Amino acid sequence: MRGQTSFFVSKSGVNWGRVKSVFILSVHNAARFRQSWALIMSHYYTIPLVEPAELAEARRVIGAGLPRIIGYFREDGAKAIRAIEEALQARSSRDLVLPAHTLKGDARQLGAVRLGEIAETIEKAARNCLERQVEPEGIGSEVAMLRGCFAETMAELCASEPASVTSAPPLTPTPAPAPAPIIAPRAAPLRPTPLRPAVFGRKSG
Fold first, then answer.
1. pTM of the predicted protein model
2. 127 CB burial (10 A radius; 0-12, 13-18, 19+)
3. pLDDT at position 172
4. CA–CA separation, 129 and 137 (whole Å)
5. What is the pLDDT at residue 125?
């Protein structure tokens, strides 16, 4: 902190020339950042949120289960975006690759092409940084766009389906089998008492 202050202040007082040069440089960098952000945004906004033909193909393949799949995507996509944000904050290129790859595949399965494109850019950059063994770089703008793009994508996917999609519906539990009826043991059949045979013979006496 002292070294930074001494750059602007010396024994003779404040070096206003240096202050002015740093201020101009900061303003210039901020302007360049805004221009870069606008350029990135304009590129992605040329890509539709959802491609109708690809969503129609998903509907044909998945059928009536599509609303359930969209519900799963809402949950899994949110988890993937959180993992991407945490990996970028931790400056871990390795931890960026898998959630970006998962988000890309899941988005494209439903025709969410803009989100898939952003996720692919993040994945490619993370793999490149991983190969060079450096921290992630150049993808801060894409990561910052994920949440907004994901929310818009979900709104369009839900609107495209007749069934309301809020979250993945719980699996219906399998009913327990009915208990087997208790059968009383059969009683042994009564055996008839044998009749004593009549005694035939001579009378005594």
1. 0.63
2. middle
3. 45
4. 7
5. 95
User: Collapsing DSSP states into helix, strand and coil, what is residue 100?
Assistant: helix
Amino acid code (one letter) for 6? S
Whether residue 13 has pLDDT greater than 70: no
The overall longest dimension of the chain from CA atoms, in Å, is 165
Q: Considering only CA atoms, which of 168, 143, 65, 62 is closest in space to residue 109?
A: 62
Measured in residues, the chain has a length of: 205
Rounded to whole angstroms, how far apart are CA atoms 119 and 80?
10
Task: State the Cα angle at 34 between 44 and 81, rounded to 5°.
Answer: 50
Phi, psi of 10 (to 5 degrees): -125, -175
Q: Are 129 and 137 in contact (CB under 8 A)?
A: yes
Helix (H, G, I), strand (E, B) or coil at 139: coil
CA distance 165 to 21: 55
| 157, 50 contact by CB (below 8 A) | yes
Q: What is the pLDDT of residues 57-90, one digit of tens each?
A: 999 999 999 999 999 999 999 999 999 999 999 9
Sorting pLDDT into bands at 50, 70 and 90, what band is 43?
Answer: confident
Q: What is the DSSP letter of 35?
A: H
